[in-house]
Design brief:
Elements (H helix, E strand, L loop, with lengths): L3 H11 L10 H38 L3 E5 L9 H9 L4 E15 L5 E9 L15 E4 L13 E5 H7 L6 E13 L4 E15 L4 H6 E5 H8 L7 E6 L5 H11 L4 E5 H4 L1 H39 L1 H9 L4 H37 L6 H4 L10 H17 L2 H8 L3 H5 L3
Helix pairs in contact: 1-11, 2-9, 2-11, 2-13, 9-13, 9-14, 11-13, 11-14
Amino acid sequence: MISRLELGIALRYLRSRRSSRLLSLITVIAVGGVTVGVMALVVVLGVMNGLQADLRDKILVANPHLRVLTYGEGLRLDDWRKVLGQVRRTAGVEAAAPFVLTQGLISAGHDYAEGVVVYGVDPDTASRAVTSFAQHFVKGDLAFRTTRRDVEGGIALGTRLASKLSAFPGDVVTLVAPAGAKFSPSLGAYQPKFHRYEVSGIFDTGMYEYDNSYVALDRRVAQRFAGLDTSVTGIEVRLADPWQAQPFGAALETRLVYPSRALDWQSQYASLFSALKLEKLAMAFVVFLICVVAAFNVVGMLSMVVRDKTREIGILLAMGLRQAAIRRIFLAQGILIGLTGTTLGVGLGLVVGGMVNRGHWIPIDPSIYFIDHLPVHTQPVDVLLVMVASHVVATLAPLYPSLQAARLDPVTAIRYE
């Protein structure tokens, strides 16, 4: 344990010679180096956590925790009512519903057309919603209400898609189906089937892929559009614990009759989240090198203090202060610098991360990264690890200067010029 005398000497050596009230410049530089390194590490880890969390939340807006599908090219579930009953009776399932997923070509009465993903769902209510898709409507809802009689039903568009098509609630859009095309002898080719729908809602999920290329239809309307008759693409499931989707899906698949299969959201986006985890580890290692550089700065600073205070150290040794006490004095200096820099760095990192996250200061291209701004979500575990790592580095840094000071010969040190 360090004594009050040793702590007092350590604090005095950190101060400026000219004034006991001011810290020396090299002390400020050493503390600043640790502060910058810790702050950068906290912010970078928060950014990587934010990317993972925001991307996961955006994906789960229209993507359920688990999907029950079938093997084969048809991708249609015929006896879906029986499978739906089995799924709903399974422990851990909070909600389950049939869905239709297909593709089409949409236009709004002019030459421009856009390929889209057609998502057919039952009109959701808050009590039985499988996803949070219904909560992201800025106009209309999933009721698909129409005001016209010359259409087959209502359709909901993403905000970006609606902007490109200049289609708004009340307008009519045409959707070309991949199924149901009939061969025309006069044309000598297959004639595509056109469907007219009234725009009944606009949704904004914040994820570029959904807002730019998804359209939603009533499930029964989507069945007719996709030519599935009474079949569906599959069953979407919401679980009590989304992180257990993978083992839950494997267990559920053993209970279902072939050709039914389960696809969880983690397996579906496994490569994406694995890349993010690897990127987080790599970024943390690279930024941690800043803390290592700051540690070398502390070593240099304390070595300069040892040379500057050589005569004083010799006098302390001649007065009976032990070498272990000298070591503790310089160890205390390094630990104080590390604690001060770590505390300031963590505080500044949390403040800067919070401001960047709330203010959306750093916009990014949503067509590449799925989200439109850089999110920062700081986790307490990461902050604790940063503090421990920084403290360990700051404790190891003064070992050499403290040993160097303790080994000084008192006579030689007193005569030092």
